[in-house]
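Researcher: Let's continue the batch. This sequence belongs to histidine kinase, and it's 447 residues. Same format as the previous ones, please.
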Amino acid sequence: MNFKGYILRLFFRILLLVSSILGLVYLIYKDKTAYAVIAGIAIVYLFINTYTFVKRRFVAMDDFFEAVKYRDFSRWFPEDRGPKDIRFLYTGFNEINRTIKEINSKNEAQYVYLQKILEMVDIGIIAYNIESGDVLWSNDSFSEILDMPSFKNIHFVESRKPELFNTVFETYHREPNSISIALQNESIKILISDTVFQVDDDAFKLIVIQDIDNTLNKNESESWKKLLSVMTHEIMNSIAPISSLADTLQSNLQQAIEQPNNNTLELDDLNAGIKTIKNRSEGLLKFAKTYRSLSKVTNLNLQRVKVSELFNNIKLLMAPSIKAKNIDIEFKVSGPKLALDIDTHLIEQVLINLILNAVDACKHKVDAQIKVLASQNPNRDIVIKVYDNGSGIPQNILENIFVPFFTSKATGSGIGLSLCKQIMLLHKGRILVKSVEDEGSVFSLVF
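Model: Same format as before. Here are the structure tokens for histidine kinase:
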């Protein structure tokens, strides 16, 4: 709306009306009756015109506010007819309606997207009115986990399964809590958490549940598949040559027994074969022992240790032998006061393992370098990094290097990095790796 133009026209009408009233008073004073009647008619006309001029704007605004009151944003005001200032007003109303319709359309689309996403997840979600029990929203996963049909009010569950109702709906779980619930034929473990929120004068409760059993079973199944795949590969690598050699020795021995004149038994060959079988059998025993070592590390003997002291111990132990192989090794700590609460022996074992792997990766490098650095990142985490400029790790096996018994080395057991990861998990830390083939690797211990 052209506000200045509207004010100017209103001011002009008021000015005419006041002037006409003054003129009427003057004519009456001069006793000019005919002219006074004409002036009176003019005053009535100006008054009606001014009233209509002001009223039609309020009528237009009243129509718009009435539409807003009933959420009728589809109404369209004519912009091509009527006084110019009213057309400006209608243009503004239409622009507001257009903007609100666009916002509503986007909100509806976002609501549909959110609803579809929440329906697809395997986590149960429900929101309901605490006072009435009416369900505001719930996804199918919630009903499936509780083994219940869809319901509109939570008291439906109370009438069917009172214990389940008390556990899930009546008990508050401010922090995520693992509980067991009894269903028809079994008991399952779920992770549950809830929160209360306010909408106007109504209080609502949001509950989130997840079937832990299915998640754990799925993860455990995948872990066992990987573990058994690697174990099978390692065991078959040992059993196949043992079986083949045993068949050969048995065949030679059988021929020597049945036809001693034609087949002479070579004792040296027999001894060598038996020795080979013995060595491979010992290899299998060693493999079994390394497997058992995965479950040995369960408790920590935590001590406050300066990182500089930890590095000094490793340096005294390993630096001479590493430099003898023409590999430069550097230990560096960002600050002398940097300290960790760790089990020193276990973290030393992790660092020794990573450094030995770095040495192995650098064995064919002319300017081989290894760096062991410690620093504190902006998140207050202390990070120890072991760099090398060796052969790197191929991308196709990078995701498997922490799987127990997985190894790309001809003489490796595949236990070292798995043990390193377990030790870091016990310390509530992480072990990360970045590697580029033919350029080098960096392993990060994040505490």
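Researcher: Any comment?
Model: The mean pLDDT is 79.
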